[in-house]
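Operator note (shift B, R.M.): manual run for Transposase requested after the automated queue skipped it. Running by hand, logging everything below so the morning shift can see what happened. Input copied straight from the record, untouched. If output looks odd, do not overwrite the archive copy; leave it for review.
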Amino acid sequence: MKQYIGLDVSLKETAISIRQDGKRIWRGKCASDPQLLAAVIRKRAPYAWRVVFETGPLSVWFYHALTAEGLPVICIDARHAKAALDMAANKTDANDADGLAHLAEVGFYREVRVKGFDSMLIRTLITARRQLLKMRLQISNQIRGLRKTFGLVVPKGAGSVFERNVHDLLQGEAKLARIVVPMLRAWSDIRYQIAELSKQLAAMALEDQHCRLLMSVPGVGTVTATAFAAAVEDPANFRNSRAVGAWVGLTPRRYQSGEVDNDGHISRRGDNQLRGLLYEAAAVILNRSTDTSTLRTWALELKERLGFKRAAVALARKLAVIMHAMLRTGELFDSHGGTPAAA
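Run finished. Output pasted below as returned.
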């Protein structure tokens, strides 16, 4: 006797549907708390075979908490599930739970690897730092813009130079200073917090053998190395290194139907943040690096033929492949070892 459970998770309540032998035998709602959900499932479905829910903001917490409760939990791709759930005449939480339970029963789903809490902690640190960087830039631009209204143009400069220039231009502008100085203090505080988070990130990278290994690649720094190591977790999670490029969303889409067979833009699936970091690393190699590695030579030749953007995307995908291979073998980056195409 096998019972299949679908969970439609929201912040407050979770809709539950239980199927057995091709029929729904119970459905209801419960507060979105893994312990309460586990108690309901044990009571209503003592022979639970699969417990399925979609990816979402609470998926990492639910997956690990329900797994700790001994339940056979499976997290599935929300995009894949949507195609099946849209078949219902009415969009409700209860119907979504029914659809997920049906997918669990027929096995028509794509399971998603759920990251561990340690990896999510690193990702959270990188995300928080990136957000503060955006806030710092936004405030500095606001300060520059406000000053232009009064004919006060802040000279080029960042960091302490920017702060000093702003203070210098506020001399004799008491009314304007009462507006700008609080913003400048907020900018300074954010700058300090960014430095603190950067220190934490650098300490994590130095303590992690995988991060130190990845930072031997030209253009790959602390942020990109830690983000990649946290996303991949175990190299064995991928059947081969080439699969990483598609997983990050750096391979072209394809539309084929009859006589039509077109390649489109990259899929942009997967981790947006990691994809952006790999692209930035590729841009550094193409524009700022001075090394003479085989990888850069290949990328520069591609840039001459296809242009900067396409070459950067191709190089970003190549970096993902090479970095995964390095994690698998434990070898440092060899700037003149083999051709990148064979990676």
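Quick read of the result: The mean pLDDT is 90. Residues 126 and 223 are 7 Å apart (CA to CA).
Leaving this for review. - R.M.
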